[in-house]
Amino acid sequence: MSTSISGRQLHVVKGTVSPDTTAQTPGMIRKPGIDKNTAGAEKIWLGHVECTPNTMGPPHHHGEAETAAYVIKGHIRVYYGEDFKEYIEAGPGDFIYVPANFNHIEGNPYDDPAEAVLSRGPDNIVINL
Questions:
Q1: Furthest C-alpha separation in the chain
Q2: DSSP letters along 86-122, please?
Q3: Is 125's pLDDT higher than 60?
Q4: For residue 58, what are the domain limits?
Q5: Could you give the CA distance from residue 62 to residue 60 in angstroms, rounded to a whole number?
Q6: Global model pTM greater than 0.70
Q7: Is residue 8 one of the residues assigned to a domain?
Q8: Which residues share a beta bridge with 68?
Q9: Do the domain assignments include residue 61?
Q10: What is the 3-state secondary structure (H, E, C) of 23-73?
Q11: CATH number of domain containing 24
């Protein structure tokens, strides 16, 4: 659903679309809600991520994109630093921020699935190392 005023459009996107339409890393299933394809967004990607239990992704960064996440359930861990030995961990109600060009590994080291709302701008860039 969209409404146009002066050539600009408001959009309501009903749910997420297939994870096949955006960049992925193992263990983190990203499903777009707002992006270029669903709403014509040029500077933001917003979606839902499911974090598979006992899975950590590969080392990567997100290029020029900054990342923010809100954890809905479970726990998400982000490793960083020399040999990725340091980490932060967020649980339900916590927010995570990852700066642009910041090498890290993310995932869920627990037996229960985790879920988060993920925002990245200018797009869902994933550069595996």
A1: 51
A2: EEEEE-TT-EEEE-TT--BEEEE-SSS-EEEEEEEES
A3: yes
A4: 16-128
A5: 7
A6: yes
A7: no
A8: 97, 119
A9: yes
A10: CCECCEEEEEEECHHHHCCCCCEEEEEEECCCEECCCEECCCCEEEEEEEE
A11: 2.60.120.10
